[in-house]
Write a structure and sequence with these properties.
The chain has 12 helices and 13 strands. It is α/β, with parallel strands linked by helices and 333 residues long. It folds into 2 domains: 46-243, Rossmann fold (3-Layer(aba) Sandwich); 248-317, VC0802-like. The protein has a 6-stranded mixed beta sheet, with helices on both faces. It has a 4-stranded antiparallel beta sheet with strand order 11-12-10-13, with helices on one face. A 3-stranded antiparallel beta sheet has the order 2-1-4. Strand 8 (224-229) and strand 9 (232-238) form a beta hairpin. It starts with a strand and ends with a helix. Bound molecules: adenosine-5'-triphosphate and magnesium ion. Residues 61-62 line the site of magnesium ion.
Length: 333
């Protein structure tokens, strides 16, 4: 459905020096700065997949989406969406896609919500029968009927997001781009939104590309993730694979009754390779990091408690949040 080959996008900026003299000099020779927002990306996405597209701020996510939607022209490389080159044929591409930006709405602010739907129905030439059928389904999944008559500006954020998703799906696009669809929503609204996205994907076989900083969205919705860092793809694969790779990291933190003074060979006591554990000591706080495949929480805890008086302890297993933070930090998976 989506083919991306060696796709790159650079932005050129001219930086002027500060002050009046800088301004005058700037007319003559402003410094040319090139940002490679997207750098040699390649991936393919099949019909019906739900993909999590993640990366730190400024990684190049929105720039990629803008090239997929035809808003931006690539500097080099190729992109096709359902056989169409988006920036060359924006109209055909627009019929194939739906886009929702969490931060912005595509609805007509001052009109009752229903008017936005009738306008979109005309724009996309949706038949009466399709319109009725889809509106019924949207209501079943997104519960929009309760505020269809209200002006969009009076809707709560959660209601507005539901309405935006419905609006983006009215023409039954093959691909749905969701840019932070749960931003600012409360816990319940997030849950409902994720349910709705799942049901939409199941009912329409819509291919979904989701960018988000909320990793619970990813856990709930995506079997596959793409991680981008400084414009480059650093991971493309199943979420479960990185979980297996990093998910066995574990940390046990102890608060000792008395500061630890003498050298104690913990690795020897636990009968493991010293390089396989990390020991951090800060006054009376002791942290042991290890891989659960080599060592059990029980062994670590028992060993420490045998040698020290412990007043408190806590266990931290790696969650997806920590794994992704580590991948961003290390720049590879
Ligand atoms: N129109 C533009 N002109 C110049 N530089 C740009 C432009 N658009 C994006 N950039 C730069 O390209 C890089 C990638 O930006 P992009 O918006 O794609 O990041 P992002 O991954 O969407 O980040 P965020 O998570 O903050 O939304 C950034 O360094 C940004 O400053
Ligand atoms: Mg962005």
């Amino acid at each position: 459905m989506i083919e991306v080959r060696h796709l790159s996008k650079s932005f050129v900026k001219y930086e002027k020096e500060k002050g009046l003299w800088g301004m005058i000099k700037g007319f003559v020779n402003a410094k040319k700065v090139i940002t490679k927002a997207v750098d040699d990306l390649s991936f393919s996405i099949a019909k019906g997949e739900v993909i999590g597209y993640i990366g730190a701020n400024g990684a190049g996510k929105s720039t990629t989406i803008k090239m997929l939607t035809g808003i931006l022209t690539p500097s080099s490389g190729e992109v096709t969406v359902d056989g169409v080159i988006p920036y060359k044929d924006r109209i055909t591409n627009a019929r194939n896609i739906g886009v929702v930006f969490g931060q912005r709405t595509q609805l007509w602010w001052d009109l009752p919500l229903i008017e936005s739907f009738t306008i979109l129905k005309d724009i996309y030439q949706v038949s009466d029968a399709d319109y009725t059928e889809r509106m019924t389904l949207f209501n079943e999944i997104l519960h929009i009927n309760e505020f269809l008559k209200s002006p969009v500006r009076t809707l709560s954020l959660g209601q507005r997001m539901r309405a935006d998703i419905a609006a983006s799906l009215l023409h039954n696009p093959k691909i749905l781009y969701l840019d932070e669809p749960t931003i600012g929503l409360d816990v319940n609204a997030k849950k409902n939104m994720r349910e709705a996205i799942k049901k939409m994907n199941a009912s329409f076989q819509t291919t979904v590309i989701l960018t988000t900083h909320d990793l619970d969205d990813i856990e709930e919705l995506c079997q596959r993730i793409l991680i981008i860092d400084a414009g480059k793809l650093i991971y493309d694969g199943a979420l479960s694979d990185i979980k297996t790779k990093y998910g066995s990291d574990c940390k046990v933190s102890f608060v000792l009754k008395e500061p630890w003074k003498d050298f104690v060979d913990l690795a020897k006591m636990m009968d493991v390779d010293p390089l396989s554990i990390t020991v951090t000591l800060n006054d009376d706080k002791l942290e042991i990091g290890f891989d659960k495949r080599n060592l059990s929480v029980a062994t670590v805890t028992a060993t420490i408690m045998k040698h020290f008086e412990v007043s408190d302890l806590s266990i931290q297993e790696t969650d997806i949040e920590a794994i992704v933070a580590r991948i961003y930090r290390e720049g590879h998976a």
